[in-house]
Design a protein that fits this description.
heterodimer, A: alpha+beta, five-stranded mixed β-sheet, two-stranded antiparallel ribbon, 3 helices, 19% helix, B: mainly beta, four-stranded antiparallel β-sheet, 1 helix, 28 strands
Chain lengths: 89, 365
């Protein structure tokens, strides 16, 4: 199984504990995890289903750059973290 | 007692008072940018549009005068087609900001229009629980000629519903001119004849489709009278936006972003001048408000109570509003200033100079 965690900066808006989902493409993994908190989806993904510009997704601490297709394969035992990417003034 | 909603970069403030006595009563969505507010006169609901830099546009609604807020749906574009004329549309089909909110039909509480950036127009029938993109305007081929004009993408900042007929709606876009529908949004026509974009090549100066109205308002009692603060000056229409007349630039400047007008007297309006598009701050560091009571033939420059030295306050397009009493006028700035006049701009009282940058204000009816 894959562990998907949402950082506290996201969970302050919509709570969602860490999710255990089946391996697959990052796209499938994120959507499976977001089923537990559908209201969180549009905090993470924009209107076209792309990862928002200032949201960072890490797979095993590696930053994912493919925001649009999210095609990276996520394997059994992998850890996915979804967090905000930047701070601002 | 008046109540003013102040949408700022660090949340929503509720300000109450009268005359020269004003207080910040509460602060909501602390730390989150709020781009627009609406206190709905039909059912008393308050709406706030947030623009979370990381997490996108979010909408909040209160049905108890701000005591509690709930998240409602945000306007969102449908899936962008992979084929056809819009497949190559360079505009991102993702709402970046809600820039205008207005009741859609006085007889149907919960019906709303939202103008956004990118410049999509959205409609809700149920108080924001669901939103639908107005496709006829979004799919209008001439939309692809609109420009961002300072922002990355065109934005719809003004949505005006004719009080006589809710199917008659006029919208203004920076930079996409003025468009009007008389059938509730099924068909649209350009309505910016007379506007001039002086900064464009000669052959494009009169192009209605690429004009940059900064803000458009209408006289509710005389809805054929509209005012526009345009990038290149001030315009007024007396025929329902069919034609626009350029007004002679008042001193100290005809440039600015905001305009407010009287809902009853079609001759009365206010503007907050800035020096120029390349110098977006008060002329000579003196903050003033221009008022006309004769339809723009002449203006009075009002400054009593406003900073007159080294003042660099800019009032954005939604940050000048007249209260329902038609005398109390509020304006707020990108520098966190909030000033209120009890007498139509003749005298001003500074409520605060310490707020976050203010995007919009709205009076509670």
């Amino acid at each position: 199984m894959v562990t998907v965690e949402f950082a506290s900066s996201l969970r302050r808006h919509v709570d969602c504990p860490a999710q255990q989902v089946a391996p697959g493409s990052l796209r499938d993994v994120l959507r499976a995890a977001l089923q537990a908190a559908p209201a969180l989806s549009h905090y993470v993904l924009d209107d076209q289903g792309c990862v928002r510009k200032h949201v960072a997704v890490f797979v095993n601490r590696g930053l994912v750059h493919d925001r649009q297709r999210q095609a990276q394969q996520v394997h059994d035992g992998d850890q996915v973290l979804v967090a905000q990417a930047l701070t601002g003034g | 007692m008046h109540t003013l909603l102040v949408a700022s970069r660090k949340g929503l403030f509720v300000v109450q008072g009268r005359g020269t006595q004003w207080q910040i009563k509460s602060h909501h969505f602390a730390g989150d940018p709020v781009t627009q507010v609406l206190a709905d006169p039909r059912d008393g609901a308050w709406y706030a549009a947030l623009r979370m830099g990381h997490f996108g546009v979010k909408m909040r609604k209160s049905t108890d005068q701000g005591a509690h807020w709930a998240e409602v749906a945000s306007p969102a574009f449908p899936a962008k087609p992979a084929s056809g004329p819009l497949a190559a549309d360079p505009t991102p089909w993702s709402v970046d900001m809600v820039w205008s909110l207005t009741p859609a039909d006085p007889q149907r509480p919960g019906s709303l229009w939202a103008g956004c950036m990118p410049a999509g127009l959205f409609h809700s029938d149920d108080g924001g629980q669901h939103w639908t993109l107005n496709r006829p305007l979004w799919e209008e081929p001439r939309r692809l000629e609109w420009m961002g004009g300072g922002n990355d993408h065109p934005g719809m900042h003004s949505v005006l519903v004719d009080p006589r007929d809710p199917r008659h709606v006029r919208v203004a876009i920076s930079c996409g001119g003025v468009w009007a529908t008389r059938d509730g949004g099924q068909t649209w026509a350009l309505s910016a004849h007379g506007m001039r974009a002086d900064y464009l090549p000669a052959e494009s100066v009169d192009d209605e489709n690429t004009q940059d109205p900064h803000r458009m308002v209408q006289c509710a009692a005389h809805p054929d009278v509209l005012w526009v603060q345009h990038h290149c000056g001030i315009y007024r229409s007396v025929d329902g936006a069919a034609h626009w007349d350029a007004l002679a630039a008042p001193l100290p400047s005809g440039f600015g972003f905001a305009v407010a007008c009287d809902p009853v007297d079609p001759q009365r309006a206010w503007f907050v001048p800035a020096q120029a598009d390349i110098q977006r701050y008060p002329v000579d560091g003196r903050m003033v408000v221009n008022r006309t009571t004769d339809g723009g033939a002449t203006f009075q420059t009002c400054s009593e109570g406003l900073p007159q030295r080294d003042a660099y306050h800019l009032v954005y397009r939604h940050a000048l509003e007249l209260a329902p009493d038609r005398q109390t006028l509020a304006m707020a700035s990108t520098t966190g200033g909030l000033w209120i006049s009890p007498d139509g701009a003749q005298h001003w009282h500074c409520v605060s100079r310490d707020l976050p940058p203010v995007a919009a204000i709205g009076w509670v009816p």
